[in-house]
Amino acid sequence: MIVVFLLCVVAGMPASGQIRDVCPTCHRDAKCDDKPDGSGKVCNCKYGFVGNGITFCQDKDECQIGAMKICGQHTKCHNTYGSYDCTCLSGYNPSNNMTIFIPNDGTHCQDIDECRITGLCGDGGRCRNLDGSFECSCQVGYQVEDGTEPFHPQRDKASCKVVDCGQPASVEDTVLLSATGTTYGSVATWVCDEGFIWGSGHNTSVCGADGLWSGPTMVCEEVDCGSPAARPHSQMLWNKSSRVGSEVVYQCNSGYHNVGKGNVSSCTTAGQWEEPPVLCQETLCGSPPLSESTEHIWNGSTAPGSTVQYFCKTGFLTRGGHNISVCKENGQWTPPTLVCQEISCGDPPTVPHTGQVRNGSSTPGSHVTYYCKIGFNHSEGNNVSLCTINGSWTKPNISCKAKCGPVPFLANSEVVWHNRSVVIHRCVDGYHSWRGRSVSVCGSSGTWQTATLRCIEIKPAISHVHFLNEKCVHWKAEKYEEDSEDYRVTYTGTRDYQRSFRDEMKQYLSSKAEELKLCLLLLPATNYSISITALSSRFTASITTNTSVPEPPVPVVYYREFETPVPTLRLTRSANSLDPISLYQVLVLPVEGIMVFDCSSPGSTDPLSKNNFSSEYITAQILIGQVGTQMDFTVGDGLYYGGFYNAPLKKGRTYYIILRAVSQWKTTLKSSCVLWAKVIGTSYVLMVSSLSAAAAVGLVAFAILIGYSCMWLFKKT
Ligand SMILES: *[C@@H]1O[C@H](CO)[C@@H](O)[C@H](O)[C@H]1NC(C)=O
Ligand SMILES: *[C@@H]1O[C@H](CO)[C@@H](O)[C@H](O)[C@H]1NC(C)=O
Ligand SMILES: *[C@@H]1O[C@H](CO)[C@@H](O)[C@H](O)[C@H]1NC(C)=O
Ligand SMILES: *[C@@H]1O[C@H](CO)[C@@H](O)[C@H](O)[C@H]1NC(C)=O
Which domains does the chain possess? Predict the structure, then answer.
């Protein structure tokens, strides 16, 4: 090139030596540069091109000097028009990760580690990275197929394959129990063959990397039970084999028999004979079996082979079976099968109108005696029957005839049952039997002993029941005889106003009288139901009655006189059956003129309702339920009692205080009064006579003269 350049310079030398502008003549792939000595311009080919700069600039092949030099190691160089580029060889990667590069920025090609991708070498392969490549070899237990190690899977078409040991070979005296497979690492397990037991070594074998099974090292030894044990009183039947499954049979010696569970013992896999189940016992039969119907002949020997002969007892018939019993080797008598049937005549024949006398036996020789029943006569014939040896009764020829005539008749009766010698009578409906026997019997003399029964028309045992004076119940008795009758009188009292009340009583009375009377202790104001039962004739009559409301009892009071207008009075009472319908009223009675007091209808009930202050009024009303056995009451305290105003008493006036007891049920009202106290106004002088006693209850009428002869009448109606 230098040479060419020089040539150009020479050729370009102008003849005239004069500097020309060459730039317009430069080649398209050249540029116009200043000459280094400053003597003008010159055309130089651009970078990557060679030539004279004017007529020709040709692309330069940079790769010519070798890819190694221009692109670096493990590269390929590619020339381009005016330039070049680099790529990495397979197995390498550019460090800037661009497929095409120019190494002037430091980019270079580096090795790829192919082994980072697993499974590149296939199953059982082992990968090794090489510079720009990789190679495979096989793991333990694997072998190369279609090639040699090391190999490249694609290039060599080789691969690794697992080692296969094939089926394990059989081992003496053992049996292959199981195997996990036949390839490398598989395990096969062995057990000793039947009749052999483990002696030493391991019972597994393993498939090795060399393709061979290792082991098993197990040694199995043949089972040997040795000689079986002898048993007393027995001998052994044995074929001298002491292998597994061999058997020995025990046999009891003669005169002995086996009472054990069996007689065979086997050689077990454990190398031992089974415990022999045989147990030989001396044979003795003991006493021969007995039965109720047989007897036997026996010489008393209990040894095997001894015999006993049986036959039927007298009174029994042989019905078949075997009559010999033998003592067997097992120590048991064979059961005798002889069948003996008892000879029986059964029940003796019956003869009409006869009874039998016998001892209950039906065996041959037994006899029955017949007799005529009552009412029948023995007319003719033999009255005995015999049980014969062939099992039948002889025929009795007794005959009996009835003695009495037709059944007797009783007035108002009927016959319930009869059998010619006995008749049972009964009264017809509406009649009842009165004493006497109800049976007629045909007597031994041939006449009826007639029943003494009397049939009497039935009438009620009790009638005309009525109650008198709230006290006594009266009735009439219907009697057949002078006998006394027992009566039971029960009565029950109830009250509508007192649900809990119940008065129940029972009384007995025994009397012969036809008119009867029983007085009862009945409580007042009560409804009673009374029933009377005649016990022997079982007849009951009932009535109801009710007791009236009586005057209530007044409590005990002590008459007193007070000068205070607020006197406190006291009463004392005892409980009474009428309490539930009773109350107390306190009445105030101003003393003035002639006074008339009527306990059954006291005048005013309210002190304010009437202008007439001189009239009496109720100042308090107290329910008996609120009163105990004692009660204090203050008159004129200005309070209300039972809706009544206990008005203060006027000073200077004189009053009588009266206590009234009232019992009321429905429309009936009964009352009684007692003078309780007197309140004396200080301007008056009062005198009360003969009333101080509280016993003034009831039907007392009296008069008191006060001051100018005032009359006060205490009256009871
Ligand atoms: C194998 O032998 C071992 C003792 O060596 C024993 O425990 C195991 O039971 C044996 N397995 C079989 C299947 O016989
Ligand atoms: C009639 O009956 C009575 C009582 O049961 C009895 O004793 C009597 O023997 C019988 N008479 C006849 C002839 O059956
Ligand atoms: C008695 O009986 C009659 C009728 O049943 C009844 O109205 C009345 O209240 C009863 N008297 C008593 C005190 O129970
Ligand atoms: C008994 O009470 C009833 C019903 O209240 C009445 O009809 C009858 O007259 C009362 N009898 C007597 C005896 O008081």
Answer: 1-60 (2.10.25.10), 65-112 (2.10.25.10), 115-162 (2.10.25.10), 174-222 (2.10.70), 234-282 (2.10.70), 294-342 (2.10.70.10), 354-402 (2.10.70), 413-457 (no CATH), 462-546 (2.60.40.10), 560-679 (2.60.40), 684-717 (no CATH)
